[in-house]
Amino acid sequence: MGIILLVDDDTATNFYNKYILKKNNIDCEIIALDNGLSALEYVKNNGLPKYIFLDINMPIMDGIQFLEEAKKWAKSELEKVKVFVMMSVTLPEEKIKKLHTILKVEILNRKVLTDMDINSIF
Description:
By secondary structure, the chain is an alpha/beta fold. It has a single domain (3-121), classed as Rossmann fold, CATH 3.40.50.2300. It is 43% helix and 19% strand. A five-stranded parallel β-sheet has the order 2-1-3-4-5. Helix 2 runs parallel beside helix 3 (63-74) and helix 3 runs parallel beside helix 4. The protein is globular and about 35 Å long. It starts with a strand and ends with a helix.
């Protein structure tokens, strides 16, 4: 089924999201990374995943910077990836607009996946 990339600086969030995906028998390799720079290096070395679950507020390189750089590198190929922005705080409207100018993303207003999310996504 492909690769799922979890990008969040909170180890517990990555652990839980990986757990819930496995619990729901999602047939993908799951890669968890803790910042946008690590994610960018991963996609440059390994190719784009099928799904990205992305935090916005991270150290080193945030989610918006990651998408900007990935789009420069991957061009139209990135548009084939399903990107879910996961956040626990409300983003200012200008950041949401910026996200959508970079790439069509879906926004989840929580940082942990639920069984319902998984059923609707997969």
